[in-house]
Amino acid sequence: MAMSVGGEDDDEVIAAINTTPLVDVMLVLLIIFLITIPVVTHTVPLQLPLERVHPLQTTPKSIEVAVNKDGDFFWNESHVDGPTLLTKLKAVSAMQPQPEIHVRGDQNTRYEFIGRVITDCERAGIAKVSFITQPPARGG
């Protein structure tokens, strides 16, 4: 490739062909063919079976245990005391499949009350305990 930088032979016609765009296009086509050819060709022709997916088990409904700032316990929005909470947790732990326990605690609740719910879940044999929180407001 030759490049003319002004000077003596300004009237001379350059007969060299710029092949850079041609090479770029060819490389792009090569990459496209390398990617698409393995997808198009299959090694062994097969007739795969058609099957619908059936769930093996239904997901159990989760139980929500709420604790307000005064330390009162709520089982799915109904007020319960400490011994009743433990009794209900033991009954739930015997279910198959076992539902999850979602603990919702007020922001100002003392840790003692939340810890009591977790301890009762452990005593009852609950396998999954989750804490429900609220995401922070955006822009702050």
TrEMBL record:
Q: Does the keyword Transit peptide apply?
A: no
Query: Which GO CC terms are listed, alphabetically?
Result: plasma membrane
Regions crossing the membrane: 25-44
Record's keyword terms, sorted = Cell membrane, Membrane, Protein transport, Transmembrane, Transmembrane helix, Transport
**GO annotation terms (biological process):** protein transport
Membrane topology summary: Single-pass membrane protein; Single-pass type II membrane protein
Q: Where in the cell is it found?
A: Cell membrane
Annotated Gene3D superfamilies: 3.30.420.270
This entry's Gene Ontology molecular function terms read: transmembrane transporter activity
The similarity annotation says: Belongs to the ExbD/TolR family.
Name of the protein in its database record: Biopolymer transporter ExbD
